[in-house]
Specification:
six-stranded mixed β-sheet; FAD/NAD(P)-binding domain; D-Amino Acid Oxidase, Chain A, domain 2
């Protein structure tokens, strides 16, 4: 395979381009409508690499932590990528049942999981209020991956590998002939190619629809904020995730805290037009302010949430699928049209592994896994309304 155009310059698209080039694809072009790679949802990411789903996704997470560690080492810079661990505390009897279930599930495919009692969990994280935690699951191999520094290093790797990165160029649709991809139409020109990868994130569904391809990935608005620095915040503290508190997550960031939380209902204000999502910079401010208020309600378990002022806010549009699994593979009925979509808010964790799987399938190598759960056409026939409601249910499934 000589020429592939990857549409989308977020972490997934950038990883796809790199893995395709390293798999022997001679010419790889990345198109991104933003001014630079990773400027949309990736820039507003939580920056975790941890276990989020089943055994297949567990293997993706394991690959990611190795990939990011290598990326940092090969960059010759300290990107802030480090093994910090992820702690999931239980605050109630119901929460205790949930984290015990998580422990048993994750132990079935990983040795990097421990169950801690309350005092041990509180001793591990100085951010936690005392005598609040019943028990906790600790993912010992979870990594912190600051997205800005990571994307900068990834962009340099793409340049060194000879990938043609074109920022500020918006893809319109794939050009086809006799049910086969022959190029990509952009707002600037048409690029000839033998295959295209739709890794357009929040725009993947809209882009696919222009070629009759159903990409069952629905963008929903999420936000996070970063606090002012505090001498109390230790860079060694593990990342925290509270499933009982609006999926609140907290981790150290530049001497302060990076914090996010999700809504308990997906209202119309947190949905975007499936066929014309806005640029991340144009997302409504009410959402980031609302999500911040949700997070600050949990100052009883993380006291600094009630003390530290906000230094920066960011919003993005992670995409969710009806079944919570990714979308990866060639579109049925359109040869050369490949899709990697539906991050389910685990894009940083799973991007390198998804890219490896995509490169294997596109170059005829053994992917080493059954990818049928990710097949592109599994949502064919669903209306936009059905996709939206089912994706919202996936979004809410993380709550306890």
């Amino acid at each position: 395979m000589r020429d592939v155009v990857v549409i989308g310059g977020g972490v997934i698209g950038a990883c796809c381009a790199l893995h395709l080039r390293e798999a022997g694809v001679r010419r790889v072009t990345v198109l991104d409508a933003g001014a630079m790679l990773g400027s949309q949802t990736t820039a507003a990411g939580a920056g975790f690499a941890a276990y989020w789903a089943g055994s297949l996704e567990g293997s993706l997470a394991d690959y990611a932590v190795d990939f990011y560690a290598r990326l940092q080492e090969e960059s010759g810079r300290n990107l802030g990528i480090r093994r910090s661990g992820l702690l999931l505390p239980a605050l109630s009897e119901r929460g205790l049942e949930v984290v015990r279930g998580l422990y048993e599930h994750e132990r079935s495919f990983s040795e990097h999981v421990e169950m801690l009692d309350g005092p041990a969990a509180e001793a591990l994280s100085p951010l936690l209020a005392q005598s609040k935690v019943r028990a906790a699951v600790l993912q010992t191999n979870a990594h912190r991956v600051p997205t800005g520094a990571m994307m900068g290093a990834l962009a340099r790797r793409l340049d060194a590998a000879g990938v043609d990165v074109r920022a500020g160029v918006r893809a319109v649709r794939a050009v086809t002939s006799r049910e086969r991809v022959t190029g990509v139409e952009t707002d600037a020109s048409t690029i000839a190619c033998g295959a295209v990868v739709n890794a357009a994130g929040a725009w993947a569904h809209a882009l696919g629809a222009r070629n009759g391809v159903t990409v069952g990935a629905v963008p929903l608005l999420e936000s996070r904020y970063v606090t002012e620095p505090s001498p109390v915040v230790s860079d060694d503290a593990p990342m925290l995730l509270f499933l009982e508190r609006n999926a609140l997550y907290v981790r150290p960031e530049r001497g302060g805290l990076l914090v996010g939380a999700i809504e308990s209902a997906v209202e119309a204000a947190s949905r975007v037009d499936l066929h014309d999502p806005p640029d991340a910079a144009a997302l409504p401010r009410h959402a980031v302010e609302h999500h911040e208020r949700l997070a600050r309600r949990s100052a009883d378990v993380v006291p600094l949430l009630g003390e530290l002022a906000t230094a920066a806010r960011a919003s993005g549009m992670p995409t969710f699928t009806p079944d919570g699994r990714h979308v990866l593979g060639e579109a049925p009925g359109l040869s050369g049209y490949h899709v990697v979509a539906g991050c389910n808010e685990s894009g940083v964790t799973h991007a390198p592994g998804l890219a490896r799987l995509l490169a294997a399938t596109m170059t005829g190598s053994d992917a080493g896994a059954d990818l049928s759960p990710y097949r592109v056409g599994r949502f064919d026939g669903m209306t936009d309304a059905q996709l939206g409601d089912a994706a919202a249910a996936t979004y809410l499934r993380r709550l306890v």
